[in-house]
Design a protein that fits this description.
The chain has helices at 7-16, 20-33, 51-66, 84-96, 108-113, 121-138, 150-164, 193-202, 230-249, 253-260; strands at 41-46, 71-79, 101-105, 143-145, 173-175, 183-185, 271-274, 277-280. It has ten helices and eight strands. The chain is globular.
Length: 287
């Protein structure tokens, strides 16, 4: 790994220069297109230690440096019970990349591991989200930012169809139902995972591979902040592999899946839900 004093400056320059089209422009496009930031926002940039959230932190720093200074940032790291190596790597990367993290601890891994569930991942994810909202609100934030990217969105759409018998997507922003006044935003929404990996390798960076105590055997390497869990991960990996295979024959497959939820014609679906109420095409048929 590079050891020069100007290492962080080189990393920052690569975002604006070499990866401007693939990463920087897509980051700012998502913020503008989905209106993710408003004047006076105080945003908790949630860092898990993987490649996605660490890049997101650097992108926010660049936005603060080069854009309108109409918002505040807190770089929030929650320790759910990382092993020592993972936690040390998160801290070292933050220091090396000049990201001033605010750390708070929880007992999530310990609680979940003693729950007796065959797959504790859903509970763990819910608890982590709740702790992040709660701590962010205590710090005066009105938004939390998560590092989900374009491929997470596409995989979620396809997983919903194949395994959940539903058509839905991972939204670029949504209001919290349990924490009044809080909102979740996903500013990496339009960035491809391959471009994130390319940025990471170009800068010779190493992040934790996965935060979960139950999968610590993959503690080092690229790292991802996308949806995780034993059962979920296997299905997500299946879907990821399927999309990659299809893209070898038709490169626009992922983009088409993404756009499919932007072009829903409710006149051509059997039924749909609106505000929790199910509507059937027969309600207006022939009228």
């Amino acid at each position: 790994m590079k050891q020069e004093n100007n290492y962080n400056r080189d990393v920052e320059r690569s975002i604006i220069k070499k990866f401007r089209k693939q990463i920087w422009c897509k980051f700012t496009k998502a913020i503008n297109e989905y209106e993710l930031i408003r004047d006076g926002d105080k945003i908790a940039v949630c860092i898990s230690g993987g490649k996605d959230s660490m890049l997101m932190a650097k992108l926010f720093q660049e936005l603060e440096r080069h854009g309108k200074k109409n918002f505040e940032l807190v770089f929030l790291v929650m320790d759910p019970g990382y092993n020592e190596a993972n936690f040390e790597r998160i801290q070292n990367n933050a220091a090396m990349l000049d990201v001033p993290i605010t750390v708070f601890g929880t007992q999530i891994f310990e609680i979940v591991s003693g729950d007796g569930m065959a797959s504790p991942c859903y509970l763990c994810a819910r608890m982590r989200r709740g702790y992040l909202y709660s701590r962010a609100k205590e710090l005066g934030c009105n938004k939390i930012a998560l590092g989900h990217h374009f491929d997470d969105v596409v995989e979620t759409i396809l997983m919903g169809m194949l395994y959940g018998s539903q058509i839905q997507t991972m939204m670029p922003k949504l209001h919290s139902t349990n924490f009044e006044g809080m909102e979740l935003i996903r500013p990496m929404y339009l960035i491809r995972e391959d471009d994130i990996i390319h940025w990471m390798r170009y800068n010779e960076l190493q992040f934790i591979q996965c935060a979960c105590r139950f999968t610590e055997n993959c503690a080092a390497g690229g790292g991802s902040d996308g949806p995780s869990g034993a059962g979920t991960t296997s299905k997500r990996e299946e879907v990821k592999a399927l999309i990659r295979e299809l893209e070898t024959k038709s490169p626009s497959v992922a983009k088409n899946i993404f756009r499919s939820v932007e072009n829903v014609n409710v006149d051509t679906v059997i039924a749909y839900k609106k505000d929790g109420v199910k509507h059937h095409f027969l309600e207006g048929y022939g009228k």
